[in-house]
Specification:
The complex is a heterodimer of chains A (344) and B (284).
Chain A: E1 3-13, E2 16-27, E3 31-35, H1 42-50, E4 57-62, E5 65-66, E6 77-80, H2 92-102, H3 107-120, H4 136-148, E7 154-158, H5 166-183, E8 186-191, H6 194-200, E9 203-208, E10 211-216, H7 218-223, H8 228-233, E11 238-244, E12 249-251, E13 254-256, E14 267-272, E15 277-280, E16 287-296, E17 301-307, E18 310-316, E19 329-334, E20 340-342
Helix pairs in contact in A: 2-3, 2-4, 3-4
Chain B: H1 16-37, E1 40-41, E2 47-48, H2 54-59, H3 62-94, H4 98-112, H5 116-126, H6 134-139, H7 153-178, H8 181-189, H9 194-205, H10 207-222, H11 227-231, H12 239-249, H13 253-283
Antiparallel strand pairs in B: 1-2
Helix pairs in contact in B: 1-13, 3-7, 3-10, 4-7, 7-10, 8-9, 10-13, 12-13
Classes of the chains: A alpha+beta (344), B mainly alpha (284).
Domain ABC transmembrane type-1 (chain B): 68-274
Subcellular location (chain B): Cell membrane
Protein name (chain B): ABC transporter permease
Chain lengths: 344, 284
């Protein structure tokens, strides 16, 4: 099949297992984000795809061909490093043309391709500048253009936007996604920024402790997290313990009618997103709590409520601003359809 | 951190000590030597103060020209050999494990503790017919009988390269350690084999360091006067050997001084040329 397939890929450094039995299929032309906290093995996984580290077990296949032991320079990749790794002794144009020069492409053709790529990254006329004279965002674009010069089979980016300031980063995320869609190139991005992952990816792969916790579309990851780690790592959430008997489930001492719990599960955790927590007058909802803090951010309002010894967060939009103040008693409504049941 | 330019005379205070040392131990002796090079030699005694050019005039002969040419050639060859050996070696060393690095650096530093005399005689033993390395080749069946490898140009070159190599490695090491390892990784992802990435990224990125090291080894090798005598034939003697000979055995200080001054001038000229060539290369 076309695309990238990882089969049971494992990497050990001495006794430390950085990546554990990873199974992943990336169909041709999709944009995948490897997302996780630092040290979760996402960069190691990408380095193995690039061939910069060799897996201790498992196989990596590209378009059906086993490339596990193919050296990096024969994999036809494009990779953008966190440090960008632009060659300081070469000009912008020479940096971009490097992969073409190595492959013995003629000077005329090199120049044509460099001009093409420079106009794609909106830096036409910069070919003769030294890379040291560029701004952070410009260097970023040059690194991307350099990686795309040979039209690679795989486009890999390791924390590509982490060095940019917040505003530029957001703009580059959109630009990168648009570029990827235009070129239809199979792309893998390593990031620890979930917003970045949600913005760009077709598939978000959440990793922790060297393992894949969940691989799914961004909305799916957000709405239907596979476990408490994913629920907690992606966006804000409320994780609440529940107890179940045969007839129904109870949360924070109140029963939630209609909450579907897998048969036989006695206790666990439910995840409910703050925007699904609705505040009403006390008595109108099964759970009652006390408002401890209100954070009005203008665009959204976060209300912190203590209920049953647990801190809950409710987020509402300005047009549905809850009329509450600190110390006030409120009813907390949890709709069973918004709760995701997770094993504890 | 940006420092302010000195404002008052007292701001130059910290410079007094180094300046004093430089004047006492470098400027004064060098000036003395320049002065002596214009003195007149007294055949019965030492020399008498004078201002004559005959010391320089005597130097402008085919014989001394050849010696000067050979000295420069030898020093350049040693410098190139050292760079060719040391750059790949230091590159691999800088990517090795910490322990391996320390072991190699200690071994290299221990070579520095050897005097030139010991290095010379050690190599002359290794190159000898009776106890040298050719006996090993005979044992391995590569040679029929042991041969003497010295005195020869190869023997001089080997020993001088051996002596200068630790300096070369130690000068290159910090620059190579600082070199961002992702640069070569980036080159590999862009399609360059490890060897190609070494020559297209590591070497060009370190060009200035390499040129500086080349100059350092060149000057270092130019001053060598023991090894050519121990391991070479008279035609392998460098200008430094002749200077020593004139100064110590022939008691002709003015002529020795003239040769030394000339050698310094030629060296400075070559270094300046290298630097200018380097600047031009950078601008292009």
């Amino acid at each position: 099949m076309s695309g990238l397939t990882l089969q049971n890929v494992t990497k050990q450094f001495g006794t430390f297992t950085a990546v554990k039995n990873v199974e992943l299929t990336v169909p041709h032309g999709t944009f995948v984000c490897l997302l996780g906290p630092s040290g979760c093995g996402k960069t190691t996984l990408m380095r193995m795809v690039a061939g910069l580290d060799l897996p201790t077990g498992g196989a990596i296949k590209l378009d059906g061909k086993d490339i596990t032991n193919v050296p990096t320079h024969k994999r036809d990749l494009g990779m953008v490093f966190q440090s960008l790794a632009l060659f300081p002794h070469l000009t912008v144009g020479e940096n971009i043309a490097y992969s073409l020069r190595i492959r013995g492409v003629g000077k005329e053709e090199q120049k044509k391709r460099v001009d093409e790529l420079l106009s794609m990254i909106h830096l036409s006329g910069y070919a003769d500048r030294p890379v040291a004279k560029l701004s952070g965002g410009q260097r970023q674009r040059v690194a991307i253009a350099r990686a795309l010069a040979i039209s690679p089979k795989l486009f890999l980016l390791d924390e590509p936007l982490s060095a940019l300031d917040a505003k530029l980063r957001e703009a580059m995320q959109v630009e990168l996604r648009q570029l990827q869609q235009r070129l239809g190139i199979t792309t893998i991005v390593v990031t620890h920024d979930q917003r970045e992952a949600m913005t760009m990816a077709d598939t978000v792969v959440v990793m922790s402790g060297g393992e894949i916790r969940q691989a799914a579309a961004p909305v799916e990851i957000y709405r239907r997290p596979a476990d408490t780690f994913v629920a907690d790592f992606i966006g804000m959430t409320n994780l609440i313990d529940f107890n179940a008997d045969g007839s129904g489930a109870s949360v924070l001492g109140a029963s939630i009618p209609g909450l579907a719990v897998p048969a036989g599960l006695k206790s666990g955790i439910i995840s409910i997103r703050p925007e699904d927590v609705h505040l009403t007058a006390p008595g109108n909802a099964p759970v009652t709590g006390t408002v401890t803090f209100v954070r009005d951010l203008g665009g959204t309002i976060e209300t912190f409520v203590e209920a049953g010894g647990k801190q809950l967060v409710a987020v509402s939009m300005p047009n549905a601003r809850p009329d509450v103040s600190v110390g006030q008693s409120v009813g907390v409504q949890l709709n069973p359809g918004d709760c995701v049941v997770l094993k504890s | 951190m940006r420092r302010e330019a000195p404002q008052k005379l007292t701001d130059y205070g910290p410079l007094v000590f180094p300046a004093g040392m430089l004047i006492t131990f470098f400027v004064v002796p060098f000036a003395t030597m320049i002065a002596v090079s214009f003195f007149k030699r007294n055949p019965s005694g030492f020399y008498t103060p004078d201002f004559v050019f005959e010391n320089y005039a005597r130097f402008l002969s085919l014989f001394f020209g050849k010696v000067l040419g050979f000295s420069l050639f030898l020093a350049v060859t040693v410098a190139i050999c050292c760079i060719v050996l040391a750059v790949p070696f230091t590159y691999l060393l800088s990517r090795a494990k910490r322990r391996t690095q320390v072991l190699w650096l200690v071994a290299l530093l221990s070579i520095l503790s050897l005097s030139e005399v010991i290095i010379g005689f050690a190599w002359s033993t290794l190159f000898s017919r009776t106890a040298g390395i050719t006996n090993l080749l005979v044992m391995l069946g590569i040679l029929d009988q042991p041969v003497a490898l010295n005195p020869s140009f190869g023997a001089v070159l080997t020993a001088m390269t051996y002596q200068a190599l630790p300096y070369t490695v130690l000068v290159l090491y910090p620059a190579l350690v600082r070199l961002d390892p992702t640069l070569t990784e980036a080159a590999r992802t862009l399609g360059a084999s490890p060897i190609k990435s070494f020559f297209t990224v590591v070497v060009p990125a370190l060009r200035n360091t390499i040129v500086a090291t080349l100059i350092m080894v060149f000057i270092f090798a130019l001053g060598s006067y023991l090894l050519p005598q121990i391991l070479g034939r008279p035609q392998h003697w460098t200008l430094s050997v002749l200077i020593t000979d004139q100064a110590i055995y022939q008691s002709n200080m003015p002529f020795a001084a003239a040769m030394a001054v000339f050698l310094v001038l030629v060296t400075l000229g070559l270094v300046a040329l290298t630097v200018i060539a380097g600047r031009k290369g950078e601008a292009a």
